[in-house]
Specification:
This protein is of the alpha/beta class. About 35% of the residues lie in helices and about 25% in strands. The protein is built from seven helices and ten strands. The strands form two sheets. The chain has a six-stranded mixed β-sheet with strand order 6-7-8-3-9-10, sandwiched between helices. Strands 2-1-4-5 form a four-stranded antiparallel β-sheet, with helices on one face. It binds adenosine-5'-diphosphate (2 copies). One adenosine-5'-diphosphate binds next to β2 and α1. One adenosine-5'-diphosphate binds next to α4. One of its GO terms (cellular component) is ATP-binding cassette (ABC) transporter complex, substrate-binding subunit-containing. This is ABC transporter ATP-binding protein. It comes from Streptomyces griseoviridis. Keywords: ATP-binding, Nucleotide-binding, Transport.
Length: about 230
């Protein structure tokens, strides 16, 4: 159970010969332990940049990121216990689904990775929950894009991360799969108590999953409230 706090978080992209881009311009945000925040806003407003900074995949220009009250801003990604499922699922092609899922667990420090049977049990349990049991021994190339997306989600969950970051995690699913996976995702997040940020363009997804919604525009948060407050009282 871990709270997440962003303090005056900033990101400016600088490339030679081009004007700097202020992608994130002072974000202040606190998530309670176990809270799921929906992050919405037009394309280019800074949502992905924000998630990448929290995950440690992008350096921070200014500000601080705290997980469970401790700053992780200067820690590399592997030393933050943050699970990410991004739209462009980066699965390892030579590994089976089972190996892709176990990889995250094995990559952890020896001390807390548990025994082999433990890894297998965790992988089997999460595969069952997201409907991947039948394809555990397949390789990514043999999967549909919907299945790949579910592997990406399962890989984020299997590590039991303190914080879960989801960037359009259901975008490649068809309507029926999206419905089931959304319900299962909510159940898992609630059961396991993940503190989570979900980026989505899907208003129904945000309404059904999020405890609160933040609307970003131009690198800042423009609106913050319950789904009811944001959608009914703009
Ligand atoms: P969103 O996820 O809301 O669509 P992004 O975080 O991807 O927004 O982008 C925010 C702004 O930062 C945009 O103006 C985008 O063009 C710019 N940007 C994103 N990534 C880079 C990058 N690697 N280099 C330069 N500019 C970038
Ligand atoms: P699902 O039904 O689970 O959404 P599909 O297999 O129907 O997945 O894929 C949706 C679309 O994405 C199809 O046009 C398919 O050809 C394409 N697609 C699936 N996997 C890949 C991939 N690895 N690279 C490029 N396109 C893909």
């Amino acid at each position: 159970m871990t709270e997440l706090e962003l303090r005056d978080l900033r990101k400016t992209y600088r490339a030679r010969g081009r004007p700097p881009v202020d992608a994130v311009r002072g974000l202040d945000l606190g998530l309670r332990s176990g809270e799921l925040l929906g992050l919405l806003g037009p394309s280019g407003c800074g949502k992905s940049t924000t998630l990448r900074m929290i995950a440690g995949l992008e350096t921070v220009t200014g500000g601080d990121i705290l997980v469970g009250g401790a700053s992780v801003t200067d820690r590399p990604a592997r030393r933050r216990n943050i699970g990410v499922a991004f739209e462009n699922y980066a699965l390892y092609p030579p590994l089976t689904v089972r190996e892709n899922l176990a990889f995250g667990l094995r990559a952890r420090r020896r001390a807390d990775r548990g025994d082999r049977g433990d890894v297998e049990r965790k992988v089997a349990r999460i595969a069952e929950r997201v409907g991947l049991t039948a394809v555990l021994d397949a390789r990514p190339a043999a999967l549909s894009s919907g299945q790949k997306q579910r592997v990406s989600l399962a890989r984020a969950l299997v590590r039991e991360p303190d914080v879960l970051l989801l960037d359009e995690p259901l975008s490649h699913l068809d309507a029926a799969q999206r419905d089931t996976t959304r319900r299962e995702l909510k159940r898992i997040q609630r059961d396991l108590g993940h503190t989570a940020i979900l980026v989505t363009h899907d208003q129904e997804e945000a309404l059904s999953l999020a405890d609160r919604i933040a609307v970003m525009r131009d690198g800042v948060i423009e609106q913050l409230g319950t789904p009811y407050e944001v959608y009914d009282h703009p």
